[in-house]
Specification:
Blueprint lengths: L6 E2 L2 E9 L3 E9 L5 E9 L7 H16 L8 E7 L2 E6 L7 H6 L6 H20 L10 E2 L8 E3 L5 E3 L6 E2 L20 H4 L6 H17 L9 H10 L11
Antiparallel strand pairs: 1-2, 2-3, 3-4, 4-6, 5-6, 7-10, 8-9
């Protein structure tokens, strides 16, 4: 589910917004009394993976983590539900799309806007990295996938960081596996491609990579093969911004 379904739980599915390796996100309509309607985003496991207990637990953990977070530059997790045995998340709907799609459509932001976007995401990361447990002890949260597809822009000018499914708490037992590589090679930090533990600095590095791409018009680390890309990231020697495309 949904796989052709027109609704899930109380939400009417309108269009698919995007899909990843394990989940899909849909634009949906929530309806209430006296004609109340609101557009929301609904995240569900891909139909062929909906019965996987490990992935279901991952989605539930994403919801629990999202419920603890509150920041204007983070996509809000509003609800966790289950319909016909399938779990789903209700999320903020950000109506402007992600940064990758905007750039692909020829709407790459100018330098001033790129710096503003980076500043807003840096604020989200500063908050995320400082989140603590019930006793106030830092959890050491690391996003692990700061990249254009996870940066959403609204038509009102809001900038939000999405996808808690890849966030891990380094302070929680067995929360981070060094041999599991989440994200995309071109947006990884050197320690990530080497399978070493990640820290807040890892997210800051990948935010810098994203900003460099916005300013240059091309990815600073991109080889002809995944292995070459990983070697470029490991060397951490990006081209000068003066080498901008065009």
């Amino acid at each position: 589910m949904p796989s052709g379904a027109s609704s899930i739980g109380p939400y009417r599915l309108l269009a698919r917004l995007g899909a990843g390796g394990m989940a899909e996100v849909y634009l949906a309509r929530a309806s209430g009394a006296s004609g109340f309607e609101k557009r929301v985003a609904v995240k569900v496991l891909r139909a062929e993976l909906a019965d996987d207990p490990k992935l279901t637990r991952s989605l539930i953990e994403e919801a629990r983590l999202g419920a603890r977070l509150s920041h204007r530059n983070l996509v809000s997790v509003q609800d966790l539900g289950v319909a016909d045995g399938s779990y789903y998340l209700r999320l903020d709907y950000v109506d402007g799309g992600d940064l990758r799609r905007l750039c692909a459509a020829g709407e790459r932001p100018d330098a001033a806007l790129a710096l503003l976007i980076a500043e807003e995401i840096a604020s989200a990361l500063e908050y995320l990295h400082a989140v603590g447990d019930e006793q106030g002890r830092p959890l050491g949260l690391v996003h692990r996938d700061v990249s254009p597809t996870n940066i959403l822009l609204s038509r009102q000018g809001d900038v939000k960081l999405a996808d808690y499914g890849v966030v891990k708490a380094t302070a929680l037992k067995d929360a981070t596996r060094a041999n599991v590589r989440k994200g995309k090679y071109a947006y990884m930090s050197p320690e990530q491609v080497e399978g070493r533990p990640l820290t807040a600095a890892s997210d800051q590095f990948t935010l810098g990579v994203t900003l460099a791409e916005l300013l240059r018009g091309s990815r600073p680390f991109e080889g002809e093969t995944p292995h070459q890309t990983m070697e470029l990231v490991r060397a951490a020697a990006p081209p000068q911004l003066a080498e901008q495309d065009g």
